[in-house]
Amino acid sequence: MRRLSRADCERLDSTDPLGAFRNRFELPDGIVYLDGNSLGALPAGTRRRLDELVREQWGKDLIRSWNCHDWIGMPRRIGAKIARLIGAGDDEVIATDSTSVNLFKLLAGALHMRPKRKVIVSERGNFPTNLYIVQGLIRLLGQGHELRLVEADELPCALDTGVAVLLLTQVDYRSGRLHDLAAMTRQAHAKGILTLWDLSHSAGAMPIELNAAGADMAVGCGYKYLNGGPGAPAYLFVARRHQGDVQPAIAGWMGHAAPFEFAPDYRPAPGIERHLAGTPPVLGLAALEVGVDLLLEADLHLVREKSRRLGDLCLRLVEQECTAFGFERACPHDSAQRGSQVAFRHPRGYAIIQALIAKGIIGDFRAPDILRFGFAPLYLRYVDVWDAVAALHRVMHNKAWDRPELEHKTTVT
Amino acid sequence: MRRLSRADCERLDSTDPLGAFRNRFELPDGIVYLDGNSLGALPAGTRRRLDELVREQWGKDLIRSWNCHDWIGMPRRIGAKIARLIGAGDDEVIATDSTSVNLFKLLAGALHMRPKRKVIVSERGNFPTNLYIVQGLIRLLGQGHELRLVEADELPCALDTGVAVLLLTQVDYRSGRLHDLAAMTRQAHAKGILTLWDLSHSAGAMPIELNAAGADMAVGCGYKYLNGGPGAPAYLFVARRHQGDVQPAIAGWMGHAAPFEFAPDYRPAPGIERHLAGTPPVLGLAALEVGVDLLLEADLHLVREKSRRLGDLCLRLVEQECTAFGFERACPHDSAQRGSQVAFRHPRGYAIIQALIAKGIIGDFRAPDILRFGFAPLYLRYVDVWDAVAALHRVMHNKAWDRPELEHKTTVT
User: Fold this and answer.
1) B254, B277, B296: which is the final residue of a domain?
2) Which residues make beta-bridge pairs with B371?
3) Which of A103, A148, B299, B309 is at 20 to 30 A from B368, Cα to Cα?
4) Active site residue A223
5) What part of B 38-67 touches A (C-beta under 8 Å)?
6) What is the pTM for the complete model shown?
7) Do residues B202 and B208 make contact, with C-beta atoms less than 8 angstroms apart?
8) CB-CB: which of A112, A132, A249 is closest to B252?
9) Looking at the domain assignment, is residue A60 inside a domain?
10) Is residue A56 a part of any domain in this protein?
């Protein structure tokens, strides 16, 4: 293959149909941000929206804002917008709580719909909170449920008629491996199994077609490719055909059919609203809406196309520039089977990531030895990938990682 | 009793030791805000804090902010501050999720600690989400639990050795009636019953001494007297002696003993952190912290003293000015038995509240016929109470409520 140069990358940027979106974000100078799959960047409109909400709505209209600024409608309105990103109907998605809490709610509902089946199947490498939530719910219910963990390629064999729910994350948080959502859903349905998808690492980076795939339930996070801000509210999806059957486990007042009647008995709202629990987190929802609105302006097919090219470029440049340094690819080579991230294994992974961060290249480390680089196509340029790999080369060549390691601190996916 | 005048109220304001706090809030002109028990007003420092957080932290330091700005420590840090408002240790409170979700988590934990007891006792008039959460959990567990609802004066008789948990809201959201937290906790403990208190309508308006009372668990909301903003994160308290025994029902990754090891098996954090689930809602937490910090500057005994006086003044002025109009007091007369609010019944309650709101007097209606006025002592003046009652007099005298009613819309407590 021809050796690529920085000028090649500049040429790619000059014809990028999504290139103009970069100006819609506030990005710091001197930083290449390859961690938008962990915390998305700040949309340029967020500060104004938040300030207006706080100053004009909370500050001046106070409690009246629930009606006059339709705060009360935010979970549904923003849910309907997210629905357009994931191939769902606007009455099938609601923005609320965290991904973990939403997983809990929907998993409890799904198990209730399959009372005779006691197995939840998932992947051994699924994002830990998904597995923890299952473990906690099994313990809570005390009804002999079992979490069956397998490798991705063992999934087809693991799906039998004792299985109630197949719980999968569409894109693996470490390897970036992408599940075929439609095919897995089909295989599950063939055995009467409900599917519960975690879209945290895929929504906003590619078109998703939940309804075309016949998916049953899904959850996802607001702070990655949706650019909703740190700890943004999450969302959940329940297919219309199931909505009447999924009883809310956390039967909070906002999910009541008539919350402001203050009736003593719980009566779930007929539709997706029943999965609300407490009072909507208005500040977080407002920031999330700005991120989602911005994404809705983009063609997700173009987003996906650029995402694949950015990943391919990174893999090719690492091969070209860093062959000598012992990186082992830990993600699919074929971009069709990959989310919007790449990963490499290296025994000094943690120190290398720290050395890169010190040079302004923000990637991510995932234990035990994974270097992870995410590509948010709305604000990342091809030259950014070049600059990141060039910096990686310098770090390795100069052994910049070979210093007393910083304390191994927390980071948040 | 001597007839009071507006000048009397002005004199009270001029010697109010909390008077200076009013300038620490951004309050709209021409409004008397008697709904701080529903949504607290905007602290003057909140906008700057949020803008700094968004611009400097999210925008510039991006993912690194979890460490360098200690976002990851916010639930614990803010929880420790709230602990000082409610008489708890700094390792006993954490800021997270909504009140409804926290109630769910702690109720599930409490039932697990009393496996042979099947009854949860609460009040018939408890805030509905508390009752709904219990109903939802009972249904979810399917273990034959029962919610026993009684009137406040029947509580002592309802507490027997079949009861697992006594779930009470310290201040009733409609009547404002205040429970004796220590006495009720004592009565419950005498029968081996765990207490779970909802402090939403009391915390921040009076000193609370959870540990002095021996309380077991508590939850509370951040957007009322804590002035944390619409839908602010809530908090939960678990007494230190119970912390190892309360297994998290929602076993999310943030409650793991080592969340960033990404281990496949859930292992709860040893302390209060185990009750975290998803990623902390940073924007909401930042606003909440400003409200809590402001409250921590005030002496809660002075806050309580002023709160009682404001309520007494309101009751006395309504008696003085509005005797002819058929209001029936729906709150305790003795301020020692009352939270920071008063309530009246009137058959035209909804229309009267709407007419008051049109005049800039923001009170609250609670079905079926309750007019509710809350007093947030940090920003409310005695003259505000005068002006509110004067407006009420005008509304009633001119029959300003006797118009085609506005559509009965939602409001949020």
Assistant:
1) B296
2) B344, B365
3) B309
4) yes
5) 38-39, 41-42, 46-47, 50-51, 54-55, 58-67
6) 0.97
7) yes
8) A132
9) no
10) no
Same structural domain for residues B323 and B287? no
Give me the domain span that covers residue B275: 70-296
Dump pLDDT digits (tens) for A121-144: 999 999 999 999 999 999 999 999
Taking the CA atoms of B253, B259, B262 and B268 in sequence, report the sign of the dihedral they define.
Answer: negative
Cα–Cα distance measured from residue A329 to residue B148, given in angstroms and rounded to the nearest whole number:
60
Q: Does residue B405 form part of some domain?
A: no
**Is residue A408 very low, low, confident or very high in pLDDT (cuts 50, 70, 90)?**
low
What torsion do the CA atoms of B248, B254, B257, B263 make, to the nearest 10 degrees? 110
- Cβ A262 vs Cβ A255: under 8 Å: no
- Residue in B60, B128, B140 nearest the CB of A253: B128
How far is C-alpha A346 from the chain's CA centre? 25
Residues of chain A found within 8 Å of residue B167, distances taken between Cβ atoms: none
Q: Which residues contact B186 (CB under 8 A, 6 or more apart)?
A: B213, B214
Chain B closest-CA separation from residue A2 CA (Å): 35
Q: Which residue has the tokens 């920031």?
A: A287
Instruction: Please check whether residues A78 and A201 belong to one and the same domain.
Output: yes
| Chain A nearest CA to B140, separation (Å) | 6
Which amino acid, residue B410? T
Asked if A372 is an active-site residue, the reply is yes
- Is A173 assigned a catalytic role? no
Does an H or E element contain A290, and which? helix A282-296
Same domain (yes/no): A287, A182: yes
A24-78 per-position pLDDT tens digit:
999 999 999 999 999 999 999 999 999 999 999 999 999 999 999 999 999 999 9
> Which domain CATH number covers B20?
3.90.1150.10
Question: Per the domain annotation, does B51 fall within a domain?
Answer: no
ipTM value: 0.96
